[in-house]
Hints:
By secondary structure, the protein is an alpha/beta fold. The protein has a single domain (2-251), classed as Rossmann fold. The protein is 39% helix and 13% strand. A 7-stranded mixed sheet has the order 3-4-2-5-1-6-7, sandwiched between helices. Helix 1 packs across helix 12. It is globular, with a radius of gyration of 18 Å. The protein starts with a strand and ends in a 23-residue tail after the last helix. The model is unreliable at 253-271 (pLDDT under 50).
Amino acid sequence: MVYVFVNQKGGVGKTTSAINLGAYLAGAGKSVLLVDFDSQANLSSGIGVKSAKPGVYELLSGAAPLDQVMRKTAIPALHVIPANIDLSGAAVELIDQKEREYFLKKALMPLRNRYDYIFIDCPPSLGILTLNGLIAADAALIPMQCEYFAMEGLSLLFKTIRRIQKHLNPSLVIGGIFFTMYDQRTRLAQEVVKQVSAYFRDAVFSTIIPRNVRLSEAPSHGIAISQYDPLCSGAKAYQSLAVELLKRGKPVSGGSPAHPANSGGEVNHGA
Length: 271
C-alpha cells in the first residue's frame, strides 16, 4: 500500500505522523519506506538523515538512481528517500513537462513490491507536488488538528481528491482521517472531534493523537518517538494508530464523504 499524508494546512502533524506510524509499523515486522516530498525536508532531518543529497529531486530529474537516494534509518525495516531544498524548484520545472502529474508514481513503481508500506509526506499545499503524491498513492491519510479552520479546510481537500479520482487516479481512496494535537481541556476540540466523527463515520480513526511535548522533541534528535520516549502519551497513541491501520487493511471504498460545512452543521467556537 502506498499512502500519502495530505492536508493543505500546515502544522497539523503530517510529518510527525508519517515518521512515527512508519516506525511502529517497521517495529511490527513490516517493511516501510518514507518518501519526503516536501522541500523543507523536515521528515528527512526528523528521521536522522544527515545528508539529503542525492534525494527525491535527483531521483525525479534522473540525476540519481534509486539505490543512491534510498537511506537506512536507525530502525532496520524503515528506509527513507530524503528531500532537499532543490525540490522547491521542481514545482516550476514540472509545469512544462509532459505527464507532469505522474513523475513520482513512475519513480516509485519499482519499489511497490519491495515494501509493505510506502508513506509519502507532502508539502502543506495543493500544488503540483501534492498532486504527484495523490496520483502515486493508493490511499490518502488525512491528519487533522482539532480546530475549526482545520475542519473548514477539509472541504477544499475533498474537492481536490474527488477531481483526482475522476480524472487522474480513479483507484485513489480515503485511507482515513485522524485527529492530532488534541487537547481534551478545550470544548472546541471536543466539538470538532464529535462533529467530524459524526459526518465521516468509518473514515475516522478511533485513535486520537494528544498534544505532547515529547512528540515535538523527538525530531530534533533525529529519531522516532518509539525510540525517544516509548512510554509517553504521544508514543502510545501512535502505536495504537499503527495497530488500527494494520487492522483496517486495504481500503476498498473510493468515495469521498460530504463535508459538514456543506451539510448545515456548525461547530461551537467556545473553549
